[in-house]
Design a protein that fits this description.
about 325 residues; 3 domains; hpI Integrase, Chain A; 13 helices; 3-stranded antiparallel sheet; mainly alpha; about 5% strand; about 55% helix
Length: about 325
């Protein structure tokens, strides 16, 4: 059997094509290669079949059904790619296992909640003096800019220009690079952190701006675990009542807060939303709308503006 005749060879060909078009396909690629190895292990030599795709998608037991649906969706898109190349390819029907994704209601942090979070970060028990300062600076940056956590963790020292107060965010979700201006107060907080960081780790093992207690780059899994510990200090439950606040919710909070400020200022939100989309690094403005969530303060301002708009004019 030639490499491309195997399912693994076909999947690798598909992944190479997609990545050449700019898609990262890291997690998706791993999943598809698992599917390919499963198919090759069965001895199947032909094209993708619906039966094989469904059998593989539903292999994991005790998991959320949406995970099955996501696995099947990956195979469906791969099968669509192979249809012109492999006669007899069967494309799994869309939605046969239900919805593959459901938007988790984000937690919009109040000013008081975020202050609690920052106090907890500043006072976290640790043997490493730099650690509390690192998380105060990191969380503060996320809240003030709406950066993705992956973008913040990848920032290098050269990317943080504290002379012009501008961040250079490289290799974003869509392989782009953008400049992110920051407020002078944010820049000062980053300067303070950099001073403490350089004093504690004058010869770090990484050139990333945020360092671990060992002088290496911060790892997402460790940041996520630390955030989970910190959120236990919040006295209020999550906004949805089902999901605890996530670190990504700081990005949602930034978008909602910015929109609220524009409403309060009487700005033309329809035009301003384009600026927000650019600042957040979205490929299209519809991605920005995904981050906007109704909250009492935002609904109150929007209702007041609508009431003023429809209020009948009184004749002089």
């Amino acid at each position: 059997m030639t490499p491309l005749a195997s399912m693994l060879g076909r999947v690798d060909d598909y992944l190479a094509t997609r990545r050449a078009l700019g898609f990262i396909f890291r997690v998706e690629g791993d999943e598809l290669r698992r599917f390919a190895r499963f198919v090759d292990d069965t001895g199947h030599l032909g094209p993708v079949t619906f039966a094989l795709a469904l059998r593989w998608a539903t292999l994991p037991q005790g998991c959320d059904r949406r995970y099955w649906a996501r696995r099947l969706d990956l195979v469906r898109r791969f099968a669509q790619f192979r249809v012109p190349l492999d006669v007899g390819t069967e494309v799994p029907p869309r939605g046969i296992l239900g919805a593959s994704y459901r938007r988790v209601e984000p937690h919009i942090f109040t000013v008081e909640e975020f202050a609690e979070l920052m106090r907890a970060a500043a006072k976290m028990p640790t043997r490493w003096p730099l650690r509390p300062h690192t998380y105060v600076a990191l969380l503060g940056l996320l809240a003030a800019t709406g950066l993705r956590i992956s973008e913040a963790l990848r920032l290098t020292r050269n990317d943080v220009d504290l002379e012009t107060d501008v961040l250079t965010v490289r290799e974003t979700k869509f392989h782009g690079t953008r400049l992110v201006p920051i407020h002078t107060s944010v820049a000062q907080a980053l300067r303070d952190y950099a001073g403490r960081r350089d004093k504690r780790r004058p010869r770090p093992a990484s050139d990333t701006f945020f360092l671990s207690e060992y002088g290496s780059s911060l790892k997402y899994c460790k940041v996520r675990k630390t955030f989970a510990d910190l959120r236990q200090t919040l006295r209020r439950p999550s906004s949805s009542g089902r999901w605890p606040p996530r670190i990504h919710d700081l990005r949602h909070t930034f978008a909602v807060t910015r929109l609220l400020r524009w409403y309060e200022d009487g700005s033309d939100v329809g035009n301003k939303i384009i600026s927000l989309s650019t600042y957040l690094g979205h490929a299209k403005v519809t991605d920005t709308y995904w981050y906007l969530t109704a909250c009492p303060a935002l609904l109150a301002v929007a209702a007041a503006r609508f009431e003023k708009h429809v209020e009948p004019r009184v004749a002089p």
